[in-house]
Amino acid sequence: MQSKIKRANEVESAFANLGLELDEFVADDTIDRPVRGRSRPSWVVPLLLLLATLISMTWAGIAAWVPGHLLEIAFQRGSLLEVRRQVLANWQPGLLFSLSLAVILGAHELGHYFATRIYGIQSSLPIFIPFPIAPMGTCGAVILMDGMKANRRQIFDIGLAGPLAGLVFAIPIAAIGLMYGDPPQTQGHSVQFGQPILIQALAKSLQASTDSGEPNEIQQKILKTKSIGNDSMSPLLMAAWVGFLVTGINMVPMSQLDGGHVIFGLMGRRSGPFCWMIYLVCIGYVSYTSYMFGEPMFVLMLLLIPLMGIPHPPSSDDTISLGLPRQIIGSISLVIPVLCIPLRPMIFL
Known about the structure:
Helices cover 60% and strands 5% of the residues. The chain is mainly alpha-helical. The protein has a domain at 100-121 and 149-348. A 3-stranded antiparallel sheet has the order 4-3-5. It has a two-stranded antiparallel ribbon with strand order 1-2. Helix 4 (81-119) crosses helix 8 (235-250) and helix 5 (152-179) runs antiparallel to helix 8. The model is unreliable at 1-8 and 14-35 (pLDDT under 50).
């Protein structure tokens, strides 16, 4: 086979020396040629997934963040009349929730994306993940990057850029949601959303900033019970709640989560044992909440994390130092999961 290939190359070289192309003397049907179709632009799939996720998140808002219950009612009655009623009643808050959450998640992923562009690391555009049966209508968004070509400092910057960019939008959206916005109409099925420390602090500060010092209904419920039902949750506040939860989970310092990038930047290869310790803490948290509340949240995530590897993989240069400013910012950022993840995120009644 190799001799045939060599002979064919010699023949083609001979024709080339004569200023001729071999293709001129070979009929198209006598040789196999790969057919190259037009390559699809890199933005097509991310755009389609973004549109699908917007529809999915809008549907979640229309269903007052319990889409499964709405579908169950339709199935029991054998009619889509209730679905139609919910769409007509809640399409505006549903759309507001969808667009607000897309801004938060999009800012998060674009933070990663622009950081990779700055450092010349190849990456994909943000890829949104629709999930219509989930309360939020999405599993978040991701970018895919060639992390093996990034050094320790670059991985730190890329990992932290996303959560910080997302919080820049999530915090003001939460503040507006605490002050304004009508909740969607519900179908009598209530879900309580436990509020993270960050939203509780915002509610308290907004109460103190008012002339009367009296909280509104949303702020009052949060300050009193540290949770709020879907029948009282404004669309903007719900979008911020999801944004905080996603940010908090991503900033857990292990594996290839954003927090894993940060702790690897801070500790380098010494971060391996620390990541294992955090993984065991997460197992304890999930076990505790499952036993105490009967709600085993985040179990699937605990099962998926080992597939990515619990310690962070090495970078192209693990020896490069971060410098004092990055070390301070990175160390402070490790508190984000505590501020953004409620002890009991969802309470099904």
